[in-house]
Write a structure and sequence with these properties.
This protein is mostly helical. The chain contains 7 helices and no strands.
């Protein structure tokens, strides 16, 4: 468990950011403007997946298939929903999924998956508390899928 302390801290930071997402959005769009911030999010994903693509060509076909699955899923989620906060949350969750993979270095442990599932549920609870809405388990499931996409991509990156 001590090995994944940074993952737990990042997960808690993502939960806090989701609680204050509307304030975070105002700060980001105040500094950069909405379109520029969206292009930065697109650029981060594109750069990450291009690095992963170049690395995947030196490995097996399974890694290329996992890369395409993760890139396709994240691309679908980011490009189909035009809301800036949603794109920001996908970026935060994806990056939070990469951290346990880097910390674990492909270790055979269930702890990173448990951390990711807990973060997915806590993020949904935090956003529901901030908007005073009810818990919707499909949103928690979507959060878990984005976190696991980041985890799979991080495992391929390491």
């Amino acid at each position: 468990m001590k090995k994944y302390i940074f993952s737990i801290i990042i997960g808690l930071v993502v939960c806090v950011l989701h609680y204050f997402h509307f304030k975070v959005e105002r700060v980001i769009t105040g500094w950069t403007g909405r379109n520029f911030a969206i292009y930065i999010i697109y650029g981060i994903f594109l750069a990450f997946f291009l690095v992963l693509l170049f690395k995947a060509f030196s490995k097996t076909n399974l890694e290329i298939g996992a890369w395409l699955l993760a890139a396709g899923l994240v691309g679908f989620i980011v490009f189909t929903n035009p809301d800036f906060l949603f794109k920001l949350s996908v970026l935060e969750l994806f990056l939070a999924g990469i951290i346990p993979a880097i910390e674990g270095k492909k270790a055979r442990s269930i702890i990173p998956v448990i951390i990711l599932l807990a973060v997915a549920v806590l993020v949904e609870v935090a956003s529901n508390l901030s908007m005073k809405s009810t818990f919707y388990y499909f949103d928690a499931w979507r959060n878990a899928i984005v976190l696991l996409s980041g985890y799979v991509s991080g495992c391929l990156l390491v």
